[in-house]
Design goal:
Strand order of the largest sheet: 1-11-12-13-16-10-9-4
Distance between the termini: 51 Å
Number of helices: 13
Oligomer: single chain
Structural class: alpha+beta
Length: about 425
Amino acid sequence: MLEIAYIRQNTEEVVKRLAVKNFDAKPVVDEILALDEKRRSTQTKLDDILAQLNKSSKEIGDLYKAGKKQEADELKGNTTNWKQEITNLEGELKKAEQDVQDKLVLLPNLPNATVPKGKTPEENEVVFQHGDVPQLYADAVPHWELAKKYDLIDFEIGVKITGAGFPVYKGRGAKLQRALINFFLDKATEAGYMEIEPPILVNKDTGFGTGQLPDKEGQMYYVTLDDMYLIPTAEVPITNIYRDVILEEDGLPVKNCGYTPCFRREAGSYGKDVRGLNRLHQFDKVEIVQIQHPDKSYQTLEEMREYVAGLLKTLELPFRTLKLCGGDMSFASALTYDMEVYSAAQKRWLEVSSVSNFETFQSNRMKLRFKKGKDKPRLAHTLNGSALALPRIVAALLENNQSEKGIKIPAALIPYTGFEYIN
């Protein structure tokens, strides 16, 4: 959530920068400023009457002490009207504050100045590419056929048990999943991230804190009876650990990682690009989260991007890094890099990670702050990244490493799988 003081002081800049996200902010900003002016006016009136009441209370006390009871009683009678007016103004102020809040949550985060303009994923900027596209043998097939051939994943049983988008992993397919999760967690802890095992159900305050609510309600599974949501990513519960917390500056950055199953409705996702593991409703992912000083957050973003790139290199996967254009960015992000691996049998790039800096957008919602000594607390910057999401990693590993002999496991994973080939 943007800070109201920043909007007041930089109105034209806010409208201009949000246009990069293809968001027409002027009507909402104008309404916010009008509502905020009403809020500030009401606050001023309330403060003035409270000051008068405090002054009169002191005078009444002095008159009683001086034995001037009649004058004190007359002055005391005047305070009755002030108290009623205070009650009325407090009600008006509470409503005015809520009105401003209701409009503020409609504004996306401001994109960083380096975010390219654009409306579609095709306009994202390729900033880095690594590895050669694998040349497959003549009988190579996509991962969903490999999964069936080697009895790794059963999509039909998943449909029977739950529905489309909920695969069942079997045998070496299940072990490959577990191997990847452990590999990613071990690498994250080696890089200084503390492992967290969070709940996978969250309440509305948690969803609001990281920006999923009210923006992504349609993409989340809602548990109606208990008024909770299944998480779309571990970022949501892990970042919210620090909601309403004031950290010490010396303790920054805070670095957490966590594995969770993730749940996304992905309403409206149809067609050939959703086959197999390409787009699921339930999937496994290891997430990295950092809370950082505002002066260091963009350096941290680059370090997180390099960290994810290192994982992909270790897995021997060809990949590219994209800087997302304004139209393809999330509601809450200020700058996002996507990592895509090449799927050789499908002959297409598959997104496996997003690494984002949210600046103060999430921390303002969560009241997540830091301070140095007795200094006034400041809003921290929050960042997160997928490190990594499993389904498309598995798809690329199966497709890119297939041969007449079977599917070769990357050397870094063999200590985790216990086997070199799937055959």
